[in-house]
C-alpha cells in the first residue's frame, strides 16, 4: 500500500509540473510605409491631411500590437493599440514621421519592439528636407569613457527621400543648446572625434543639409565624459 501511494504521488507531481511557462512576444517586421521613403498611397481627407494605412507582419506569442507614431517636425507622438496587423491613421500632408510597433502579451510583462522607420507623407512638395540625423552614439544621458587622446567619437546616420544630402554641421559645446560649429563633414562622413575633459557634461546636435538648401535638426543630445 505504501508503494502504491508513493507511485501515485510521483505521477501527480510529474503530471502537474509539465506545463510550459508563457513565452514573451517576438518583435514584428514592418512592411509599410517603407523606410526612408515618400508615402504616396494616402487617401486625401482634406487639403492638409490624408489617411495612411500602416502594415506589419504577425509576430509570434503576441496578443496585441501598439503603434507609436511621431511627427518629426512637432515631435508630437500618438499611441494606438490593435489586435490586427494594420491600422489606418490621418496624417499631416508633407510632414516627416517615424513609427514602430510594440508586441504585447498579457501573460507576460516583457514586450518586443520593432525597428524604427521614418517616412514623408506625400504633400505638394517637389523637394523634401532631409530626415533629422539619427544619433547612434553616444546616446543621450550616458557616461562615456574618453580615449587615451582625450577624445570621444560622435556617430550618427542621415537619410533623405531625394537622396541629395550634401553635408552636415556638427555643433558641440558645454552649453545647452550647443552653438559652436566644430565640424562640417561631407555626406559620407557620419562620425567625428571631439576633444573632451574628464567629468564634464557636453551637448551636441547635427544639422543635415541637402542640395536644395533644405535643412533638418537632430535635436540636442548630451553625455558626460569620464
Notes on the structure:
This is Fibronectin type-III domain-containing protein. This protein has 226 residues and is mainly beta. The protein folds into 2 domains: 30-121, Immunoglobulin-like (Sandwich), CATH 2.60.40.10; 134-225, Immunoglobulin-like (Sandwich). Helices cover 7% and strands 46% of the residues. The protein is built from 1 helix and 19 strands. The chain has one helix spanning 2-16; strands at 30-32, 37-39, 43-44, 49-56, 64-71, 77-82, 86-92, 96-104, 112-113, 117-121, 134-137, 142-144, 151-157, 165-173, 181-183, 191-195, 200-210, 215-217, 221-225. Strands 2, 5, 6, 8, 9 and 10 form a 6-stranded mixed beta sheet that branches. Strands 12, 14, 15, 17, 18 and 19 form a 6-stranded mixed beta sheet that branches. Strands 1, 3, 4 and 7 form a 4-stranded antiparallel beta sheet that branches. 26% of the residues are buried. The mean pLDDT is 92.
CATH top level label of the largest domain: Mainly Beta
- Tally of helical runs: 1
Please, what is the average pLDDT?
92
Structural class, judged by helices and strands? Answer: mainly beta
Q: What is the structure about, briefly put?
A:
The chain is mainly beta.
Give the SSE layout.
Blueprint: H1 2-16, E1 30-32, E2 37-39, E3 43-44, E4 49-56, E5 64-71, E6 77-82, E7 86-92, E8 96-104, E9 112-113, E10 117-121, E11 134-137, E12 142-144, E13 151-157, E14 165-173, E15 181-183, E16 191-195, E17 200-210, E18 215-217, E19 221-225
Parallel strand pairs: 2-10, 12-19
Antiparallel strand pairs: 1-4, 3-4, 4-7, 5-6, 5-8, 8-9, 8-10, 11-13, 13-16, 14-15, 14-17, 17-18, 17-19
